[in-house]
Design goal:
Elements lengths: L14 H30 L2 H5 L9 H37 L16 H6 L7 H11 L1
Helix pairs in contact: 1-3
C-alpha cells in the first residue's frame, strides 16, 4: 500500500538504529560545543591580544573596522551553531522520552528514511513534508 508521501514505507526503527542515531547526535553535539568554545575564545580576546600586540596604542581605523567585521561574522556563525545545538538537543529529548516515535515525521507520521536521518539525525520531517514546508515559505 503506498504512503501519502509517495515514498515506499520503511521498517520501524530498531534498537540498533536508535543507538546509531544517538551516537550520531552525541557526536554532532560534541562538535558543535567544541566549535562554540572556539567562538568563546574569539569573543573573549581583547583587541590588543587578538593582534598579538601587547601595547595599549589604538589600532588604525581600518584595522578596527576589520576586527569589528570579524567579530560580527563570528557572532553570526556562533548564533547558527547555537540554533543547531538546540535542534540536536530537541532530537535527543525525543529519542530519550519517546524512542518509539523517534524517526517518525511530525507532518505525516510516516517513518523518515534512514539515509535522511543519517545525514540529519535531528530531522523532524520526511523529505516530502519538508519540501511542502519550504515551498510554503516562498
Amino acid at each position: 500500500m503506498p504512503t501519502t508521501s509517495g515514498a515506499k514505507k520503511s521498517k520501524p526503527m530498531t534498537r540498533k538504529n536508535l543507538q546509531h542515531f544517538e551516537k550520531r547526535l552525541l557526536e554532532e553535539r560534541a562538535r558543535v560545543l567544541k566549535e562554540l568554545g572556539h567562538y568563546d575564545d574569539v569573543f573573549g580576546a581583547t583587541p590588543q591580544s587578538a593582534d598579538g600586540d601587547l601595547s595599549s596604542y589604538s589600532f588604525h581605523m581600518a584595522d578596527q573596522g576589520t576586527d569589528a567585521m570579524e567579530r560580527e561574522k563570528a557572532f553570526l556563525f556562533a548564533s547558527q551553531e547555537g540554533r543547531f545545538l538546540w535542534h540536536i538537543d530537541q532530537a535527543l529529548r525525543r529519542l530519550y522520552k519517546t524512542p518509539e516515535l523517534f524517526g517518525k515525521c511530525h507532518g505525516c507520521g510516516e517513518e523518515i528514511a534512514f539515509d535522511r536521518l543519517d545525514a540529519l539525525p535531528h530531522a523532524r520531517y520526511c523529505i516530502a513534508c519538508k519540501q511542502r514546508e519550504e515551498d510554503g515559505k516562498k
